[in-house]
Amino acid sequence: MDTKTIKKTNEPKPSEKTGCPNVLAINASPHRNTGNTAEILNPFLEGMRAEGANVELFCTEDLAINSCKGDLFCMIRPDGRCIHRDDMDELILKIRNADILVLASPLYVDDVTGPMKTLMDRMVPLLQIFIETRDGHTRHPLKEPRKRRVILVSSCGFWEPDNFDVLVAHMQAFAKNITAEFSGVLLRPHAASLKGMIAMGAPVQDIPDAAREAGRQMIRENRISPALLETISRPLVPRDVYQQTSNQHFMEMTLKLHQDAGKGPGCQNGVL
Ligand SMILES: Cc1cc2nc3c(=O)[nH]c(=O)nc-3n(C[C@H](O)[C@H](O)[C@H](O)COP(=O)(O)O)c2cc1C
Known about the structure:
Layout: H1 15-18, E1 22-27, H2 36-50, E2 54-59, H3 73-76, H4 88-96, E3 100-106, H5 114-121, E4 132-134, E5 137-139, E6 149-155, H6 165-177, E7 181-188, H7 192-200, H8 206-221, H9 226-232, H10 239-260
Parallel strand pairs: 1-2, 1-3, 3-6, 6-7
Antiparallel strand pairs: 4-5
Helix pairs in contact: 2-8, 8-9
The structure holds flavin mononucleotide.
Flavin mononucleotide binds at residues 29-31, 35-37, 106-110, 155-158, 163, 191-192.
């Protein structure tokens, strides 16, 4: 899946004119398009494209996005212009025109990566400074009301799917915060196994296939079936086998680090 570096472009056509939904995907993995998160994100976006969606993909690693200074001027200004002059100048136009935002991030300390959180903070100019009560909760209304969906794609290192609980709760809250509908989560636990197993020709092709079909379904039906989501998250190996092979890999990494540093294999139990 091609990623784009951001440059001054014509504002994307509103989807009402083209009849196809605008999908803006942002991958916040430092491994960009070659990481574990991309193993699920890319087929998902391929599926969306196959159903006619206008899909654009950016990686935060290729973007310069400064952290929010907290002055709230962007919320007060009708054009939402932030004090920073950086890649968010262009990206915010694409976010404004997106019908579906696909936010992809590996799980870092139980949540999104730092660059994804910075990006989420910098979406605040979509909102008015004024507050109202909606569904019994204080909210900032959108400056430009628009039906928008948020979908989360994530991968993590630990074995259990419940490692994503905090992240999913955060994304649900974020979607409410920007008045969007939270429309699905594609989660891949013990994700390191997937790449290796695909490379070995193990029978795991059902996982990227399910991600592709999830993309198609999302565009066709505005939903993703629980069966597809379950396949994407399904166990690849038993937990004890995963721990054993992971620790073996970590031991090899540790030994290599020692050898590269000219210290020889002098580590005990993986401790440097
Ligand atoms: C700084 C850091 C924090 C991480 N925190 C967690 C964590 O809390 N739980 C977990 O299961 N995996 C954690 N991981 C592992 C990543 O989520 C996992 O390797 C992920 O699949 C990487 O995706 P990527 O290849 O797309 O970057 C962490 C990795 C790093 C580098």
